[in-house]
Design goal:
- The protein has one domain.
- Helix content is 72%, strand content 0%.
- Helix 1 packs antiparallel against helix 2, helix 2 packs antiparallel against helix 3 and helix 4 runs antiparallel to helix 5.
- The radius of gyration is 16 Å and the shape is elongated.
Length: 149
């Protein structure tokens, strides 16, 4: 089972690196993205990350009954395996060239996202309290459909 998690993380990192590389090229090769383009590419990055996170959730919590709660060790292990996926989402979005008028909003969103990831990394059990709530709220306010959902 542990091998499966490592495979998913490796696959996630490879996918996100490919997306991040393309996004990084966009930063240097083109003008800033329009808001619509930024949201579309950002949501694509988040969709890939969310798919991997759902696979991890299924692996760690899929065998629980409707009224069962996972033990703390399982939650911590899930959180530790979720952090690389979340970091790749963060890196992918950070590599995008945001619309010039929205740089401040995106900077604030990314700061909240990074803070939430750092919180989970330093205290895996904090994932149960969803330290990404502020980033999710900012993403929705900005207009993302997948990021923040």
């Amino acid at each position: 089972m542990r091998r499966h998690v490592l495979f998913l993380i490796t696959l996630s990192l490879a996918t996100a690196m490919a997306v991040g590389s393309a996004a990084g090229a966009a930063v240097h090769d083109r003008k800033p993205l329009t808001k619509k383009q930024f949201i579309k590419v950002g949501d694509d990055i988040c969709r890939q990350g969310n798919d991997l996170l759902q696979q991890l959730q299924q692996q760690y919590f899929g065998n629980l009954g409707p009224n069962e709660q996972p033990d703390a060790a399982t939650v911590d292990e899930f959180a530790q395996n979720a952090v690389p996926v979340l970091r790749q989402e963060y890196d992918g979005i950070k590599a995008l060239a945001p619309p010039a008028a929205d740089k401040g909003k995106i900077k604030k969103l990314l700061a909240a996202f990074k803070k939430g990831i750092d919180t989970i990394e330093s205290n895996p059990s904090s994932i149960a309290k969803d330290p990404l709530t502020k980033a999710e709220k900012l993403a929705k306010q900005y207009g993302f459909k997948v990021c923040g959902s």
